[in-house]
């Protein structure tokens, strides 16, 4: 079957849905003067990486720790329109780093006062060294490792920054660039650090997500299902439609069932490396070699998301998410997912059998019993070059890690387990990244292909749900009106602390 449209959007994650919602908003304004559009996705339903899975026992798990915080009025208006305004829980972030068998409040670099005296000395002398290094430096830091040395010094680097960032990114900090940092990494202030240590005070509240909201029902994925059903007409969406090729000169995409769709402009939210290989294959040499070189230079890590449903009462009070830099567990982050919403667990009167105790050597009774229930969600990163992970053993290793870090007592009754591996999890801000993006994105655009989104434009600094939505919205305005794409091109302005962009509304 052959169809055609004007703006073809590939991918129904936040970027594609942002684009489609913007197109529908403009359609309501301009009626039939707006060119036709279509949203297609390989998956059976909307959400992309921001979807939520449900286990057979009724526990919800997002694909990693997703919380909503926004830099844009448009984004707030869109999700409020889709979900309503009274369907959210608002949480104060309660976040810690687990280190040397104790909790250090997040961000670590502002809470050196909570360390042993030996470690305090290492961190404070390191901060002073860093200050000296920065004041004599004649050039910008060449990579993330140098940035950490100059901003925080060797003490904080050795204890926290290097091991933690390796666990998150699955690449050494020396291979990562530092222009992405902005509001994503808290810097350290020597005076404040020394004052906090001397006064024995704790500093919290840093960063854009100190307060965040989360849906009462349906997890993060519920938001995007609502956007797809309430803000984009159903006849503009096609699921189970996997794009397997792009005929760049003929301006049509081919789907896995052999059907095609012609377009005037293509907005792709597929991973950029995938799009480049399709485009190269379609154009042939010399573009083929160029596209393959760009695709191979991009780096990403895969993410394993492990979920545990547990019988009993959550023993972790109001803790939201927790960081793990040490090697006593495979995960870098744990989210107490049941704390975000009651709807993330089965109701207390649901009757479920135990599957096991956390320590598998302990006996357990498998007769079905009622709750209450709580849950943990853990994330493990993987890269083929630096940090391989065995998919067959990672669930067991994670549960063992939960015991050794006191997240679970050995006799915890596990009633549900979940494991999903995401091939494209984190777009690595590799030292080569910007060179690739500066060549590849304009090249694709010269062929009427806008590659945008978390992996579409590969910029981690603008890869959260609010950013992704706006990448889609602004790409549409660029396609239709030639408007500038602010989020893509001015990442650090977008992320300026405390600022919200109010010039565009969703209504
Ligand atoms: C571990 C983790 C933690 C995160 N934490 C947060 C957070 O706390 N806060 C926050 O705001 N954001 C968070 N995010 C980011 C959030 O998930 C992304 O912003 C968002 O999902 C990216 O949207 P996207 O539309 O660009 O891409 P995706 O969500 O990846 O969507 C791309 C879509 O394209 C489709 N597709 C791919 N290939 C094809 C093909 N060949 N044919 C057809 N369709 C195709 C896919 O099926 C998918 O639906 C997190 C992400 C991860 C992985």
UniProtKB/TrEMBL annotation:
SUPFAM superfamilies membership: FAD/NAD(P)-binding domain
**Known InterPro entries for this protein?**
FAD/NAD-bd_sf
Q: Which Gene3D superfamilies match?
A: FAD/NAD(P)-binding domain
A Pfam family of the record is: NAD_binding_8
Tell me the domain of life: Eukaryota
User: Any idea what this protein is called?
Assistant: Amine oxidase domain-containing protein
Which species does the entry assign this protein to? Triparma retinervis
Q: What is the lineage of its organism?
A: Eukaryota, Sar, Stramenopiles, Ochrophyta, Bolidophyceae
């Amino acid at each position: 079957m052959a169809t055609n449209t004007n703006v073809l959007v590939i991918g129904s994650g936040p970027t594609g849905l942002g684009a489609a919602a913007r197109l529908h908003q403009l359609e309501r304004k301009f009626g039939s003067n707006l060119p036709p559009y279509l949203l297609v996705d390989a998956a059976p339903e909307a959400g992309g990486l921001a979807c939520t899975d449900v286990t057979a026992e009724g526990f919800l798990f997002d694909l990693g720790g997703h919380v909503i915080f926004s830099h844009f009025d448009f984004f707030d208006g869109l999700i409020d329109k889709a979900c309503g305004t009274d369907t959210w829980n608002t949480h104060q972030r309660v976040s810690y780093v687990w280190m040397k068998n104790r909790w250090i409040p997040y961000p670590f670099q502002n809470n050196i006062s909570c360390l042993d005296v030996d470690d305090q000395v290492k961190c404070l002398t390191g901060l002073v060294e860093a200050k000296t290094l920065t004041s004599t430096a004649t050039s910008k830091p060449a990579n993330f490792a140098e940035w950490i040395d100059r901003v925080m010094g060797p003490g904080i680097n050795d204890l926290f920054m290097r091991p933690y960032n390796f666990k998150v990114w699955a690449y050494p900090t020396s291979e990562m660039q530092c222009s992405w940092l902005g509001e994503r990494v808290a810097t350290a202030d020597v005076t404040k650090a020394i004052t906090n240590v001397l006064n024995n005070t704790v500093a919290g509240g840093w960063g854009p997500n100190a307060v965040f909201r989360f849906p009462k029902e349906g997890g993060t994925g519920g938001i995007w299902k609502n956007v797809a059903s309430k803000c984009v007409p159903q006849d503009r969406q096609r699921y189970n439609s996997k794009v397997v090729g792009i005929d760049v000169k003929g301006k049509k995409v081919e789907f896995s069932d052999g059907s095609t769709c012609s377009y005037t402009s293509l907005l792709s939210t597929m991973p950029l490396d995938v799009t480049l290989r399709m485009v190269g294959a379609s154009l042939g040499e010399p573009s083929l070699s160029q596209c393959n070189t760009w695709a191979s230079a991009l780096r990403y890590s895969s993410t394993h998301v492990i979920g545990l449903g547990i019988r009993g009462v959550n023993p972790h009070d109001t803790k939201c998410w927790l960081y793990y830099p040490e090697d006593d567990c495979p995960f870098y982050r744990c989210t107490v997912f049941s704390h975000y919403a009651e709807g993330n667990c089965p109701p207390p009167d649901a009757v479920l059998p135990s599957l096991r105790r956390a320590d598998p050597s302990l006996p357990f009774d498998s007769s079905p019993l009622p709750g209450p229930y709580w849950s943990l969600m853990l994330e493990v990163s993987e890269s083929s070059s630096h940090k391989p992970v065995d998919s067959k053993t990672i669930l067991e290793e994670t549960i063992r890690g939960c015991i050794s870090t006191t997240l679970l007592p050995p006799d915890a009754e596990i009633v549900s387990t979940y494991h999903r591996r995401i091939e494209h999890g984190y777009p690595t801000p590799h030292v080569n990244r910007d060179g690739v993006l500066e060549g590849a994105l304009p090249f694709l655009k010269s062929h009427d292909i806008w590659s945008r989104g978390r992996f579409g434009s590969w910029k981690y600094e603008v890869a959260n749900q609010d950013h992704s939505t706006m990448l889609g919205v602004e790409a549409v305005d660029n396609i239709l009106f030639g408007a500038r794409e602010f989020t893509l091109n001015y990442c650090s302005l977008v992320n300026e602390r405390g600022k919200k962009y109010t010039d565009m509304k969703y209504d």
